[in-house]
C-alpha cells in the first residue's frame, strides 16, 4: 500500500501509463473525447482502456483529496 501513497510513483504513472501513447494525442484524452461524444461504438476493450489509462489519475486524485483532508 505504501507504493500507492508515493507521490513520485503516482505522478510517474500518470505521465507514462496514463498518457501513453503520446502521439498523435494522449490515449486517455482520445477516450475521454469519445465518451463525451456519446461513446457510440465503444466496446468492452475500449472501456477497459479507459480504466487502465485512467487509473493513475484516480490514484493522483485520491492522494490530493487525502492531502486536503489531512491539512484541515
From TrEMBL:
Protein's UniProt name: RND transporter
Lineage: Bacteria, Pseudomonadati, Bacteroidota, Flavobacteriia, Flavobacteriales
Transmembrane intervals: 48-65
Alphabetic keyword roster: Membrane, Transmembrane, Transmembrane helix
